Structure formats: structure tokens, C-alpha cells
Amino acid sequence: xxxxxxxxxxxxxxxxxxxxxxxxxxxxxxxxxxxxxxxxxxxxxxxxxxxxxxxxxxxxxxxxxxxxxxxxxxxxxxxxxxxxxxxxxxxxxxxxxxxxxxxxxxxxxxxxxxxxxxxxxxxxxxxxxxxxxxxxxxxxxxxxxxxxxxxxxxxxxxxxxxxxxxxxxxxxxxxxxxxxxxxxxxxxxxxxxxxxxxxxxxxxxxxxxxxxxxxxxxxxxxxxxxxxxxxxxxxxxxxxxxxxxxxxxxxxxxxxxxxxxxxxxxxxxxxxxxxxxxxxxxxxxxxxxxxxxxxxxxxxxxxxxxxxxxxxxxxxxxxx
Length: 320
Prior knowledge:
globular; two-stranded antiparallel sheet; disordered N terminus; 13 helices; DNA polymerase, domain 1; 8-stranded mixed beta sheet; Rossmann fold; alpha/beta
């Protein structure tokens, strides 16, 4: 991996507040104390944050021990910029890399690290992305329907996917990735708009289209929530090779090293659970969580975005 992928830390920045456009962007790390207990960073050594985001989990890991060092990766350069300001006080104990979490093997090899003491992956979309209207992740804003976690990458935007895919494929994505019961109805409406020369190009276009079709649905969440989730997963290939990442991360752990994964929807959690169980059945790891750890009512009240989080953890076997 080219060395220019290593993101320069802003050692002159204050770590107290990382802001974008005057807004405080220090998100609340989900299940922070639970993640720290499972990861045990007080042991020291090299840790890998596979989705560093704004740097909340990474900061806590580095604070836990002066002997802890960390590589954090993210495919979003804006997230890396915010994390670099937050983590600057740790100096050369931290390296940030512009990369996808699935690149863990290449990143670790490029850094010249032998084994890792722990790996953490918070798979949710970050508050930085959700709260930036121009990123197109949220129906709370009217913005271009983008949804790319790496806006510099080659992935199509959500709008481009909806403009290109046939009706049956749109319906499949909405059902498989969003478990949306009205997937066919919504896909048909999207294609009909396209045929009329009115493609779905903004978050408002999509949210209003879905809301009109599922007007009778009641609940705490917006009727377009599952549709937005499905498109985000499809655009960013969020489920692709997640199982291989878990295996690769486990291979990089030192004996008794820890892997912590936080997921936010059932599709991710299912892959994590099944892969963890397969590794345990092969005698390669010990499961630290027989059942997923979920946020306390207090955390959910303080941070509603944490309500669907599930944490699973494992420890690499002492002998292979």
C-alpha cells in the first residue's frame, strides 16, 4: 500500500473539539465502556480501529494505556480530518489511513506490524455523515441522493443506481438489504417516475415517494427508513466480504488478542454471529459474548442512534 495513504495527523490542532463548519462534530461512541471491557486496551500493544470515524473509540483505547498504539482507517477523508484533530495529542502512537476496513491486511503489512492486540469495528454510518446534508444519507434534509461513504471513490451514488437498475433489481435490493415489505411497489414507482423523465435524484424525492406509498404505516421511524438503509448498503457494499474481514482480523491477532464488532442492523449482525460461531467451532477463538451486548436504556435515551447497536466480541485462542 502506498505510503501516501497514511493520513497526516494535525499535531497543532486542539483535541477538545473537532468541528466542521462551526458545528461540534464529536459524536458519542456507541457502547464505549462495553467495547473497552471486551477489547482490554490496558494490555498495551497495537490496536486497529477498522472504522475510525470521528475517533471516539480510538481516543478511549489510547487513553487506557500509554503502551497502547493504534492504526485507524476510514474510507471518508473528512472523518479522518476530524479524527486527526481529536487524536493529535497522542503523537506517533496513532496512525490514520485512508482505506476501507476490508483492507486490514494490506494496511497492517504496510505499517510493518506483526500482530495486533485488538481490533474494533463500529459498522454504523457515522454521525459526521448523517449530519452532513450534502452527503445524502438522511431524509431530514433535502439534498442530492448520494450516500457514498467515500465520495472520492468509484462507487455509484444512490441516485445513479436508481437511474440505472431495472425494476426487479431495485425491488431485490430493497427487500434483501432493507427487508422492506413493499419493495416491489416502491421499485415500480421509482421506475415509473424515471420513465416520465422525473428520476429520483434527491433525498426529498425518495422520502416523499415512499411516504406516499406506505402512508398507513405507523411507528416511531420514518416510512422511508428501510429504503434508505437498503440503498446505503448497496452503494457502499457494506455486507460484501464482512465475513472475510472478520477472518482476516482474527488471523492478525496475537494469541489472546481481541476482536470487537458493533453492528446496527440484523443483516450485519447475522453475518458477524455466524462467522464468530464458525471460528469458535474450529477452535480458533473463544466467544466473549454468548449473546450480543446492547445499549442500556440510559445510553439509548442520551443517544437515540445507539438503540439498534449490538456488540459481539471474541478472543483468539492461545494455541492454534
